[in-house]
Structure formats: C-alpha cells, structure tokens
Amino acid sequence: MPHNTPALTPEQCDAFGAEMDALRQRIVADLGTEDAEYIRQVLRAQRVLEVTGRSLLFAGFLPPAWLGGVTALSLSKILDNMEIGHNVLHGQYDWLRDEALNSQTFEMDLVAPAELWKRSHNFGHHTYTNIVGKDRDIGYWILRVTPEQRWTPYYLGNPVYAALLSVIFQWGVMLHDLEAERVVSGEKGWDEVSADAKKMAAKALRQVAKDYLLFPALTGPLAPLTFAGNATANLVRNLWGFSIIFCGHFPDDVATFTEEEAANETRGQWYVRQLLGSANITGSRLFHLLSGNLSHQIEHHLFPDIPARRYPQIAEEVRDACRRYGLPYNTGPLHRQLGSVARKLIRLALPGSGPDDKHTEERAAKPQAA
Q: Distance (Å, rounded) from C-alpha 357 to C-alpha 72?
C-alpha cells in the first residue's frame, strides 16, 4: 500500500461504505431518459464515424481522404470499445431492455470474445481488484507492476514488454483471457482451454477477415491503402486503450493487496480497496468521452454497473468523502499519470526496486484496514 494511506477503523470503513451505498442507490433511482438518449447518441455517432471512415478510404489515393478515413475509423473503434462496448458489457444499460445495448449479446470490435472478456474482467478483475495472486490484471501476467511480484531476470524486459503490449493490445487482452497460467498450475484443464481457444479463433478470424480481407477487397486497386488504413486505426485504438487502462491502474501510489488483507472484508472495506487500487485522469469532456469515462477509474471501480456518463457527476462527492476520511484520491493529467506508469515499469524491471524490506514487513504486520 502507499506509505501515506491511513488505517481506517472498522467503524470508519463501514461509514464510508454506507455513504458509497447511498450514493449508488441515489444514482440508480435517477436513471432514465437522459441516460438512454446519451448512449444511443454515442452509438449513432460511432456508426456515422465508421461509415464515414470506410467511405473515405474508397478515395484513399488522395492523402487527405486517407488520413480523414483513418481518423474517423480510429475514433469509431475507440468509441465502440471504450464508451460503448466496455460499459455495455458491464451491464450498465441492461435496464433499457434494448437488444443493441444488452450485455448478454453485445460484441465489441475486438478479437476477444465478449463472453471470455466478461469472465476475466467483470468477475476476475472487479471482484479481486489489485489482490496479488487473484487479480490477473496485475501486470496481465506479463509485466511487473508492483514490488509484491517477486523479481526474476525475466522482468529486465519490463519496458519492452509494455511497449509491445501497447501495440498489440487487443490481442494481448484476448490471450490474457485464455488463462494459460492456470493451465500450468493445474487449475484449468486442457478441455477448457480448447473450448476457449476455439471461441477466440472464431472471433479473431471474423475480425481479421473484416478489417484485412473484406473491406480492402471492396476498394479494389486501393486494397493495400485500405489494409494500411484499417491497420493504423487498430493501432491507434490499441495505443489509446492501453494508455487509458494503464493510467487507471498502475501509476505510483496505487495500492495492491495481499490475499490476507482482503480476506473476510466488509462492504465498506471492499469500497476502500477499490478506491486505493485505482487512479483517475483529468481532462476535457471530449477526453472523458473517448476514454469511456474510464478517466474516472476510481468511480468505475466503486460503481462498475452504473452508466459511466454519471461518473463525472459523482466524482466530487467521492472526492469529498475521501477528504473527510483521510483517504487519497489519485488523479492527474494524462501525461503525468502515463509518465508515472513508465517510470514504475522501468524501476520495477530492476532487482531491489520498490519499497524496502522493512516497509514490506511492516505492511504485512499492519492490522487489516482495507
């Protein structure tokens, strides 16, 4: 945990949890027409951007048209993944009973199947947020992002692995959902792996065929330019998604927890763990839209099934509660949070990095606070 995190009493944790529960109940009771119209407007904008982008690529021999097509298609993919797909798959709009926004049937424009993504993300990550050994999103089993991960020479490549992951992020997410480390440990059988791999292969094949065969073929002699345009749009989306997600989870002062610290936690302690294990990013309304409002990662971890458009509205209330309980509220501009993540990845690539042994021992001996 961060050195400056106060140890709340059980009574304080319960009181904090009661405030968060009350805030959630108030927002849920207020959901209605404006929320429905908002997400449908975003969905319409995403579709217009996709049609515009793919149409402009038919004139891709003109550099301005190609650049415009790539820009529109990149924005379409970002909206589809961040503000629409991620949030719809959290069930944020299931109450609308709209088939186009139903978490059980929606598929993102990604190679990862929604079914497996929900299992890994909605259940695995949001249940065990930042519990080392339980939350598989801690470093995605590729990177060392906390001193509690035992250093080995493999981690000397930490910055390189992160750079490569940012480029192929959608593929990294898909392979992460395969849970290969559970096969090695014997927790998952090969029959389960085979079934998951078939689902991944089918979804990936559809995505590759769409972006790199069908749409390039439709543009005839411009196929190579269309192929490059689709590849560039996917790259932009990957880099953006990687940046937003890593800035919400891995800057300095974001806490990790042992299984012992999180054992038998109360509702209030669960809320505190979500708060301490997250970080926000400041920015404009457009920035928040393009981040899927995951720039409010703190609020998302506290209330993952509330429509993300509500996070900016409740952020000040959450921040005020943190002030009153002496809890940190980790936020900052993109460049600062991203720089913090980069420095951490470099620092933790080396042995002997992070908190010293004395602090680690003190932390292990501290009474459970979260």
A: 50
Q: Which domain holds residue 178?
A: 10-31+113-365
Q: How far, in Å, CA of 164 to CA of 217, rounded?
A: 29
Contacts of 86 by beta carbon, 8 Å cutoff, 6+ apart: 108, 292, 294
Run of H or E including 79: helix 63-79
Model pTM score: 0.91
If one counts the domains in the chain, the total is 1
Asked whether residue 96 is domain-assigned, the answer is no
pLDDT tens, residue by residue, 9-55: 999 999 999 999 999 999 999 999 999 999 999 999 999 999 999 99
Rg (CA), the chain: 21
Question: Is there a contact between 225 and 219 (Cβ–Cβ < 8 Å)?
Answer: yes
Q: Is residue 141 part of a domain?
A: yes
243 falls within a domain: yes
Cα separation, 12 vs 29, in Å, equals 26
**309 contact partners, CB below 8 Å, separation of at least 6:** 35, 38, 39, 293
Between the CA of residue 306 and those of 27, 82, 89, 217, 248, what are the distances in Å? 8, 15, 12, 41, 18
130: left (phi over 0), alpha (psi -120 to 50) or beta: left
